[in-house]
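Figure 6 in text form: structure in, sequence out.
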């Protein structure tokens, strides 16, 4: 099957952005933002792009699928046991096998069957201890070793055995501190050592699947706010979207993220380019691998009315673009503009060039100009050479220069290390 993402982009060209469901939003300095609207205004709660490029959106008016040209709305049909069980769709997840799972808020867990375009149901049964513990599903997560977890909004944490469709659950106990801190599970993330991070309505947990024990952690800087709607491991650090945004520091203590000045975010997600995106009422913030703010896309670049918010973040599986879920049936495709190389030299006679880790070295009229790669600023200029000048670098940390009398050894920044007299005989 061809990529639906390509079809979506082609559809945008054919439609000329004149469709009532699609319009071109303001272009920012670094990003192009395309706005999409569901056919009806509704509260949206989750989204994903599946392996075929279809966009799926969870809403309070059923499940939506977008193929680039048309929307399909899956709704509950009391006469059809293969339809969705509830029109309140809370969360979506595509597992490693490509199976789409849907968490409803009241109708249990659903498994989508692409062959029949229908759904298999997993509903709590008081008479079956192996059924899912609660019908209000908040989060679905698969670990790298294929364990399949479902977080419920009242029945604790479930683990599903997909070989026999059975469930077991972990629930809060007031008398046992090794149990989960709350039965309302909001977020799940995998730790590098195979443990599970679990965010709840009251407390953050580290779960050891080997012994079934939970370690409860409560942040101290705002003790009245102990809810964690989003968890994301990025560059060996776990971020949480609590109030304010925090990370798991040394000795398993939650610490505030200073770069955000106590901001609260709705969702956190790493992208395909080694960065991490944070969404909320102030728009999008993007951190680089050094945990520095690389970009900020203000909320006004998404909405004319800034009294809105951004929620789920979903990096595309097809390329480096990113889908963002907005308010009232609105969602966005954010595409980074290609960096265009701007000439930064005058029309000088360039007779040689060397490339180091951070600089360009250029021979211009018998002298050496050293330019910074990132901002094209002239960092250094070397002169005083004799006759024709030649430049060579076998490694990125040293540069060799030769003229008619000497050889010169330099660091990549332009500091002279050695010089040697040579003979032309």
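Output sequence:
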């Amino acid at each position: 099957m061809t990529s639906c993402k390509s079809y979506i982009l082609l559809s945008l060209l054919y439609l000329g952005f004149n469709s009532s469901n699609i319009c071109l939003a303001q272009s920012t300095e670094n990003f192009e933002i395309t706005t999409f609207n569901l056919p009806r205004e509704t509260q949206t709660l989750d989204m994903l792009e599946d392996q075929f490029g279809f966009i799926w959106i969870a809403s309070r008016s059923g499940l939506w699928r977008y193929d680039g040209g048309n929307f399909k709305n899956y709704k509950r049909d009391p006469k059809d046991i293969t339809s969705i069980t509830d029109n309140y769709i809370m969360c979506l997840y595509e597992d490693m096998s490509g199976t789409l799972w849907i968490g409803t808020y009241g109708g249990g867990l659903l498994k989508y069957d692409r062959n029949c375009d229908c759904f298999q149901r997993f509903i709590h049964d008081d008479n079956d201890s192996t059924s899912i513990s609660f019908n209000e599903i908040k989060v679905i997560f698969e670990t790298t070793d294929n364990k399949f977890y479902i977080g419920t909004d009242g029945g604790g944490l479930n683990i599903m055995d997909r070989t026999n469709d059975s469930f077991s659950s972990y629930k809060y106990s007031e008398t046992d501190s090794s149990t989960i801190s709350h039965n309302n599970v909001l977020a799940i993330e995998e730790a590098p050592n195979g443990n599970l991070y679990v965010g709840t309505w009251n407390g953050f947990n580290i779960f050891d699947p080997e012994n079934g024990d939970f370690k409860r952690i409560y942040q101290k800087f705002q003790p009245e706010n102990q809810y964690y709607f989003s968890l994301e491991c990025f560059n060996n650090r776990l971020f949480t979207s609590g109030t304010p945004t925090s990370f798991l520091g040394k000795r398993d203590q939650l610490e505030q993220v200073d770069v955000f000045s106590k901001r609260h975010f709705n969702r956190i997600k790493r992208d395909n380019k080694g960065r991490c995106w944070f969404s909320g009422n102030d728009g999008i913030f993007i951190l680089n691998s050094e945990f520095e703010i690389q970009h900020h896309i203000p909320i006004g670049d998404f909405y004319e009315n800034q009294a809105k918010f951004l929620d789920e973040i979903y990096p595309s599986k097809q390329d480096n673009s990113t889908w963002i879920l907005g308010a009232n049936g609105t969602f966005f495709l954010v595409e980074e503009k290609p960096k265009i190389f701007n000439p930064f030299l005058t029309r000088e006679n360039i007779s040689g060039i060397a490339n180091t880790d951070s600089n360009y070295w250029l021979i211009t009229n018998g002298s050496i100009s050293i330019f910074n790669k990132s901002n094209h600023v002239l960092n250094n200029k070397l002169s005083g050479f004799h006759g024709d000048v030649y430049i060579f670098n076998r490694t990125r940390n040293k540069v060799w220069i030769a003229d008619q009398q000497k050889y010169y050894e330099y660091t990549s920044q332009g500091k002279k290390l050695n010089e040697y007299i040579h003979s032309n005989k």
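Caption detail: Residues 4-15 form the longest helix (12 residues).
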